[in-house]
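[Automated response] Your request has been received and processed.

Submitted sequence:
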Amino acid sequence: MASAITVVGLPIALGIIMFGLGLSLTPGDFARIGRRPRAVAVALACQLVLLPLVCFGLVLAFDLPPVLAVGMMLLAASPGGTTANLYSHLFRGDVALNISLTAINSVIAVITLPIVTNLALGYFNPGEGQVGLQLAKTIEVFLIVLVPVGLGMLVRGLKPSFASAMDKPVRIASVVILTLVIIGAVSAQLDVLMANLGALAGVVVTFCVLSLAIGFIVPRLLKIDRPQSIASAFEVGLHNATLAIVIARSVLQNADMSLPAAVYGVLMFPLAAAFGMLITRGAPKTPH
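Generated structure:
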């Protein structure tokens, strides 16, 4: 039963979430990137370059076991989650920028996620017989990530009224599915999780806080407007934990590698809320 849930249930759950993401996207979201290239370029540099390096440093500093180290790197390589849009809206970020970043990240991750994961597997060598993401598995990542998004965009293009009507229900369903996936991943590996919780909690909290801080501070230092910096903070700081869990359990077929993402998926919500309140305290309300 557990195997069936992993092989069939998790990819279906992620597919629903990514399909819902596609329902909120249009080709204009990609075109809009050209109208704000600096903000997009800075956020993507933080997401694709700085975070893997920061995560690699944390993994070494916390001396994680190889399997958990690869799990952390897989999490770092995962694109921003759909919850970034919600947090950006709540804390007066540029939600349009979030949508654009999510769109382009969903495409880029098909390339960068296998690369980072392969490098991590090669460096940490987490077990005999672990050969990493070969071509067939890279194609599987492509199918899991991009096809549902494309179908959602197609539905929106053909039936915009239906897509608009389904936006709120699918968002709610995505949050519920995300929660169930995390609960399932935690409960299925509860003994292993409890044995490694001490090591995982510290590195996961540190990584989440640094991700949010880098996503906000780097754009501000480079004179990016505050609403766009807030959008960047949540896009860079809130990773798609569900994707990391699915890749670990269904593609790499290693449940232990999903533990960092499962712990992160639980802790990121209160941490992001606290971070949002911190950076917006005393800030003037600006329309966006």
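Summary generated for your ticket: The chain has twelve helices and no strands. The two ends are 47 Å apart (CA to CA).
If you did not submit this request, please reply to this message.
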